[in-house]
Amino acid sequence: MDINELIAGLESDLTEISSLLEKCERQRVRDVLTQERQKMEKELAQKQQQKLQRAKKDSGDKTDIALKAYTVKINNYGWDQSDKFVKIYITLKGVHSIPAESVEAAFTDRGFHVLVRDLDGKNHQMTVSSLLFPIVVAESSKKIKTDMVLIMCKKKSAKKWECLTQAEKQSKEKDKPNMNESADPSEGLMTVLKKIYSDGDDEMKRTINKAWVESQDKKAKAEDLDF
User: Taking burial as the number of CB atoms within 10 A of a residue's CB, which of 11, 192, 200, 227 is the most buried?
Assistant: First the structure.
């Protein structure tokens, strides 16, 4: 199968998995889908890298040292947004001093891939394939600034993004406390106490046991008074 077809297939699969994750309510199923998505993201990054290498090779530059260089993942970045664009700021010292063609960016409906070749003897890459919302590929672009690569993702709609990726949104939702008004408050308290008791040392356990016994005694006395 042609590499472009493989990439298109992986991108479609990732879009579908992201859609399923948005609707998924069972944590076990969510974990399985998340693991599968991570595998696909890794495979997509590899295929995109292969595509870039093939394109360079087909252009006749078979001695490109940059493609043989050690590749590192880009971790130093920030992001911001306007009504029309989501902007990713990738900090790379000296990136403005290398040839512009050494900085490549490819976009998909829900992601982008950046490859900076031969900067300080290394290649630098970043792949995001689960953006929070779809983008307009044809109107997305890159800009090279002093010590920085700016990725401009054109929003399909003007809605405000609460985070950059689906994974970040799911992580935030997972960490949210249970705000179910119909839930018994004592159940939440008991859960917290059980965790503290389980993780605590002997002194902490004795303290909790004493407090529990005293509270039960008070409760029993109060019930006796009601009679």
Answer: 11
